[in-house]
Amino acid sequence: MAEHDVASPGLPEASDDHDPNLGTRTPLDRLVGKGTRAAAWLVLLAMAISVFEVVMRYGLDSPTSWVHETVIFLVATSFALGGPAALANNRHIRVRVLYDLVGTRFRYVLDCFNDVMTFVFCLAMSYAGWVMFWRASHSPLGEWQLERSGTSWNPPFPALTKGVILFALAVMTLQALWHLYQTFFSPRPPEGGSEGSGASDATSDAAPDATADHKEPR
Amino acid sequence: AEYEWTFQTSETAGEPQFEVKKAWADSIKTMSDGRIAIEILPVNAVVQANQTLDAVSAGILQGHLTDPSYFSGQNPAFGMLGNLVGAWGDPLEYLEYMQHGGGEELYNELVEPYGVHLIGAGATGLESFVSKKPVRTVDDLKGLKVRAPEGMVYNIFQKAGAAPVNLPGSEVYTGLEKGVIDAADYTVFATNDDQGLHSFAKYPSYPGFHSLPMVAVSMNKGIWDGLPADLKAIMESATDAMAYDMVFTLKARDIKAVSAARANPDIEVIDMAPEERAKFRRIAQQEWKVWAEKNELTGKVYESVVSFLTDRNLM
Amino acid sequence: MDIATATMLLVGGIFALLVTGLPLAFVTGLVALAYTFGWFGPMALPLVTSRVYGFVTEYSLVAVPMFVLMASLLDRSGIAKDLFNAMRVMAGRLPGGVAIQTIVVAFFLAAMSGIIGGEIVLLGILALPQMLRLGYDKHIAIGVVCAGGSLGTMMPPSIVLIIYGLIANQSIADLFTAAITPAIVLMASYIIYVLIRCLRNPSLGPVMPEEERRASFQSKRELLKAIGVPAVIAGLVLGSIYGGVASVTEAAAMGSFGVLVAVMLRGEFSITLMQRALSQTMNTCGMIIWIGIGAAALVGVYNLMGGNRFVSSMILGLDIPPLAIIMVMMAILLLLGLFLDWIGIAMLTLPIFVPIIVQLGYDPVWFGVLFAVNMQVSFLSPPFGPAAFYLKGVAPEGISLKDIFVSLLPFIAIQLCVLAMLLLWPQLSLWLV
Ligand code: NA
Ligand code: NA
């Protein structure tokens, strides 16, 4: 539903009264939105230290040992956390051909199906992410030991990145569960025809829009 | 086949090492009379190069033929056994150490807790040093911006006065071409030449002096332990044969590419003088000592290599 | 179940899930999970997250957030608007002039980046709303942004060609040289197409009224300033790549740093502006990256299942002339392009195709260029057209995926023509090598 909540390009003054990053469906989504606002500054940090590395290497002939690995870590973190962020804002791209053709009742079925599938995906991924993180944070003998990069600087970024991936997947699982709950327990929409395909892109979740929970300020 | 396995390698399908590894799988199939069929996959086919240890350990892959330096972050001993920079003047010295100097036993001590078993060790041959600036002496390394990946190579170049840059392999080509870096720890001479690096990095070193990566042929320990003795013997002897096949195949290619490069007036192939090689090795040895302190196993590797080299008057 | 059936079910499953409206990021990922679980059991599930780890730590992708940040800052400051106003003035009486200029801008962008994603988002945030604002036809504007924005992997530096060179063990220098002419041909074809359409129907790319044109920029200095700032930034990025100052990936960071400085110099900087730009970057990257994550996971599983052996035996089993085999390969690439992203396609097919190409006696450099053009098509082709998805993520409201794909059809046709030219006339790429 918030696909168009992305700051409308070209018209910053029109979109700036609404923060594009506030989650839209549940309180958890809004919390994720707030967290994303903070995490987004990692990208700026990554840019700044990249420029620092260029200056040090080209200008002063003394390349750093830590910038490349840190930049990859920062960007990987922002990529991983971008998953829950996009889920909170319903920014993940979907194909809407069938959705636009059918009536509200069938849309409701599709919503239920998609919410279940999203939840199953996130849950299975979280399990796999947990196994991956456990291996990266324990020695073969089962002691706590973080996997490191093996470079001269040797930071524990591999273990941390895997931890961030697990965190992102776990948050997505909770988000998906909450969405599922909302879709199932919202009043079902009355049987109706297609709601005008012209407005097809305006809302992606026609059915849940009927519930009070979704009437968040835009 | 009775046993159907998937092994991942650390090369792309176009590299000659990949063909050698496929030949290894073929010979195992022949020797075992079709009881073992191994599928050889290129790098990143199933998981990333630095994740194969986990994948073999979990049984996702049944084995891998790879450079253990990728796992230096799990235990620095992987870096020491996998590429002890400056230690080996010739791949045959290294193979002797692994097969008859206690190297393979140490490697198994390292890797068996992960649920992985080393079948045998191979080596690629000395990697060539690609450079835009002539490196004839150790002093020429001063201030040289050289790409150095994981393992001990970074610290050793730093000790030698170079300015190492930690850059991923996919950036080496454009980085060298445009002059972001002056030199790179990359791969063997013929492959560097195939990829066109010598058209702008005109001062390659051959034979190289810095890096000789191991090819660790290993598989899931649970599967290995359950194999009958005849199949184990087949796997081991095929792997020993592959080690020599790899060294000599790559050497033949290198020699051909080197003579073509020598004939090219634009390229100067540098063969570093023995006293300069010794100087570089002395610098490298200081770093081995640092790594020896890291844990019990790295200490053992250090002791074992030093005594091997001393016995043969190579120190 | 044999691999052929499994392959068919896999493709069918992807399409079925796509149609239900499940987010793409979860479609391919879910299929990957299901196959891992069904084929290898729960023990193998970490394979999927291992692919996720590999994908997000890919160094060349670092350029993506840098480009998105650059775009977001340019857009939120007045720089983009000024630039396009100036471009419109400079376009003079030429119908479709701004669209043509956008293609030229895209071409310069292509010379400073090696991947798509960042570029399309940049053009989608900057150029698309501006062209719409200036009354340009929606379809022309969208097509120009997506087709132009995909050129980054044709023009050197190109990560597609680097990966091809590494996989095929070919000279990357030769690949870069061979790709330049086809890239220019593609750009020129896009320009000619836009020109023909707009000359025949000027309302598709309306010209600025004369009096408005005189009024909009009082002085030449103002016009120069509007063009000058972006030109200096482009110069900074290109200069740092070609001058050996920064790696291709670092250059993207240099570019967004340059934009940030420009925004500050214009007195438009504020914490709110920065926060909004960064939030948009994070959201957009989340959308882009998670599409790739699913595909990367799928390729890992398929390879483990023996998918590569299956494809290879299928091709080698064909008893047809060499050129027909190449056509079959092209067809496979285009088919895969319907539902995988390029990294997945490269990982899956190149280890199989390149040895066959060499065996048939064709030049692998030429095939590399063919591969790159194929990838251009795959970026645009529905239903899995990454370029369309990236644009959808940032396009103004009211533009649907259907609009985007419809707009792309003529551009896909152009790409296929160029592909056919290259097939029949290899010298088009190889004459410089
Ligand atoms: Na490019
Ligand atoms: Na496509």
Protein model, in words:
The complex is a heterotrimer of chains A (218), B (315) and C (433). By secondary structure, chain A is mainly alpha-helical. Chain A is 58% helix and 0% strand. In chain B, helix 1 (16-31) packs antiparallel against helix 10 (229-263), helix 3 (76-82) runs parallel beside helix 12 (296-311) and helix 5 packs antiparallel against helix 12. Chain B contains 12 helices and 9 strands. Chain C has 433 residues and is an all-alpha fold. Chain C has helices at residues 3-19, 24-40, 46-56, 63-76, 79-91, 97-112, 118-133, 138-150, 159-168, 172-200, 210-216, 220-242, 248-265, 271-304, 307-316, 322-337, 342-360, 364-380, 386-394, 401-424, 427-430. In chain C, helix 1 (3-19) runs antiparallel to helix 2 (24-40) and helix 6 (97-112) runs parallel beside helix 12 (220-242). Chains in contact: A-B, A-C, B-C. The interface between A and C is large, with 77 and 82 residues. The site of one sodium ion has 8 residues of chain C, from loops. One sodium ion binds at residues 337-338, 378, 381, 384-385 of chain C. Chain A: Its main location: membrane. Chain A: Part of the tripartite ATP-independent periplasmic (TRAP) transport system. Chain A: Residues 1-27, 189-218 are annotated as: Disordered. Chain A: It comes from Cobetia amphilecti.
SSE layout:
The complex is a heterotrimer of chains A (218), B (315) and C (433).
Chain A (H helix, E strand, L loop, with lengths): L11 H4 L11 H13 L1 H19 L7 H22 L8 H5 L2 H34 L19 H29 L33
Chain B lengths: L2 E7 L6 H16 L4 E6 L10 H7 L4 E4 L9 H7 L8 H10 L2 H9 L4 E8 L5 E3 L13 E3 L5 H7 L3 E3 L6 H7 L4 E3 L3 H6 L19 E7 H5 L3 H35 L10 H19 L3 H16 L4
Parallel strand pairs in B: 1-2, 1-3, 6-7, 6-8
Antiparallel strand pairs in B: 3-9, 4-9, 5-8
Helix pairs in contact in B: 1-10, 3-12, 5-12, 11-12
Chain C lengths: L2 H17 L4 H17 L5 H11 L6 H14 L2 H13 L5 H16 L5 H16 L4 H13 L8 H10 L3 H29 L9 H7 L3 H23 L5 H18 L5 H34 L2 H10 L5 H16 L4 H19 L3 H17 L5 H9 L6 H24 L2 H4 L3
Helix pairs in contact in C: 1-2, 2-14, 3-14, 4-7, 4-13, 4-14, 5-7, 5-12, 6-7, 6-8, 6-10, 6-12, 7-8, 7-19, 8-20, 9-17, 9-18, 10-18, 10-20, 12-13, 14-17, 14-19, 15-17, 16-17, 16-18, 17-18, 18-20, 19-20
